[in-house]
């Protein structure tokens, strides 16, 4: 099984932690980087080949990960010379990838079964499978519904439930056909194109543990919880 890890971003939202370190290498707990945890999980799940799409401070990631042999993985690299969006790096890799593969952000902390996501993607025949997570958004204000300057409904401080993308995807190589390598391609653009073509992505709903380490408060929470979650996150790794 093959996974592509997107590790080329600048981690702007996580500054100052990412001033000198690429975001996938910020430490979690006393001994591990986020990327190391992900690589351990992928290896334990049966993945054998990982491609790291690197850009900002990519040479540090390359020095840290090497050829991946310490995790029983074969790791190669794709250098992103300029920002290409979430899916853009895959276009340059298309000829190096199998028909079905996993794509994920390099800053995801979760106990998601990556192998099952890819298996379900293959079985579904979908062009794209999106791992999703339930999130509740609390609105701290009274919400008004208006029509022609008249208030027709009012809800005091409502909560709204959504399923959000976890930053983990099952992708079919054929889904990337028709896009130009070297040009940016965002996740949003790909999803909207598939919906317009009535070739809808599938959802893989997950309700376990998940944190997107994108903001300082999420990063602080991850560190605070890691000691009690370590056995869950690194089981079998």
**Beta strands, count:** 13
| SS summary, helix count | 6
**Quaternary assembly:** single chain
Over all CA atoms, what is the radius of gyration? 19 Å
Uncertain residue segments: none
- Strand content is 25-35%
* H/E series: EEEHEHEHEEHEEEEHEEH
N→C terminal distance: 16 Å
Largest sheet: 7 strands, mixed
The outline comes out as globular
Q: Give average pLDDT, whole number.
A: 89
Helix share, percent: 25-40%
Query: Order of strands in the sheet with the most strands?
Result: 5-4-1-6-11-8-12
Organism: Streptomyces gottesmaniae
Domain Nucleotidyl transferase: 3-227
Protein name: Sugar phosphate nucleotidyltransferase
Overview of this protein structure:
- α2 links the parallel β4 and β5.
- It contains six helices and 13 strands.
- It starts with a strand and ends with a helix.
- The strands form four sheets. The chain has a seven-stranded mixed sheet.
- The model has no long low-confidence stretch (mean pLDDT 89).
- The chain has 237 residues and is α/β, with parallel strands linked by helices.
Overview features:
237 residues; alpha/beta; seven-stranded mixed β-sheet; two-stranded antiparallel ribbon; 6 helices; 13 strands; Mannose-1P_guanyltransferase
Describe the secondary-structure layout.
Layout: E1 2-7, E2 27-28, E3 32-33, H1 34-44, E4 49-54, H2 58-65, E5 74-79, H3 88-93, E6 100-105, E7 108-110, H4 114-124, E8 128-138, E9 142-147, E10 150-156, E11 159-172, H5 187-196, E12 202-206, E13 210-212, H6 216-233
